[in-house]
Amino acid sequence: MAEKTGVLVVDDSAFMRKIISQIINDSEKFYVVATARDGNDALKTLEQHKREIQLVTLDIQMPGMDGLTCLRNIMEKHPRRVVMVSSLTTDGARETLQALEYGAVDFIAKPGGAISLEFDQVGNQLLLILESATQCAMPRPGIVHRPPTKDLHPAVLAIPERFTTYKGSLLLVAVASSTGGPKALASLIPQIPKDMPAAMLIVQHMPATFTKLLADRLDRSSEFRVKEAEDGDKLKAGLCLIAPGGVHTEVTRDECIRLTKDPPIGGLRPCADVTFQTIASVFGNRAMGVVLTGMGRDGTAGCRALRNRGCKILVESKETALIYGMPKSVVENNLHDQTVPLDKMATAILERLNRDYS
User: Residues 346, 192: contact at Cβ < 8 Å?
Assistant: First the structure.
């Protein structure tokens, strides 16, 4: 039998520590090395068992040293792959997004709040997240720093007015991302100038509360206007829409958003393949596909539909992707035009728009 992966479980609730530990210890791939009741206890335990602990599940809301403070200390002193345990409340979602930017690789949502008898019902999801975390590159410690946009790509910031449309029609940049996506988007979107000659539509795998807060965070840090998509929203240049969690996002013939409750595809709703395929049918070669970090194959079928209509496809490089799953699938199917490190992705998008759609 393959060697199991050691996990540290951090939660101020003895009940939650017991439930999470039972789920992990009953699995074939993981075991609990130790538990901790708060951030200070977690840091001491990591120091004592630093060779054995490879993953950490970390509650966000704890007395004393809270989860965010603990995470920052872990990344500075004992870098590990950390999965946050979060409530689905607005406060929990806001703190989770901040944790993902600090270096956490993913999160698991408690279905009923801080202490939930239903948590054992999401055991399979927790194990899948832990398994995906083991495939992540070791996160870089620290907060995402956002340099001023003007310092990032001066050669493409002065976009001529003639590029605002392509032969009189709107251009669209469609982005797919999953695990590691919030941090990648927090780096990418602030680099997009407000006069980029296209609309943007992003499909990020997250629950509904989280996608709204993600859109708000990106909007505050960016020149580009960002909001969570609503049914009937019109795509327009200078506007970035985030597909809401819990529904599929389609694009209609009149270049508007349609949200549907159609069944999940591969367990995903929203699913990037659904969005990309409708974009291909509506926009033809006026769209560009971008696939960022994430586990699985979502986006591959959509990129095939886009490529068949003459669209350009950019994928994040293995060197910068937290999980090189979704980009790798596109590359292995030979559907990409360019592989780009995350820090160069904004420049690549703008250069492609100027070169291929002028």
Answer: yes
CA distance 104 to 77: 14
Which of the residues are catalytic? 178, 205, 298
Q: What is the CATH number of the domain that holds 185?
A: 3.40.50.180
**Mean of the per-residue pLDDT values of the chain:** 88
> Mind listing the pLDDT tens digit for each residue in 47-100?
999 899 999 999 998 988 999 999 999 999 889 999 998 876 777 888 999 898
Q: What is the chain's length? A: 358
> Which residues span the domain enclosing 283?
149-356
**pTM to 2 decimals?**
0.82
Residue with tokens 């580009």: 224
Q: Are 62 and 15 in contact (CB under 8 A)?
A: no
Task: Give CA separation, 11 vs 20, 50, 61, 71, 109, in Å.
Answer: 9, 19, 8, 13, 14
Count of structural domains within the chain: 2
CA distances from 27 to 110, 124, 128 (A): 19, 9, 11
C-alpha distance from residue 153 to each of 88, 159, 165, 329 (Å): 37, 11, 21, 29
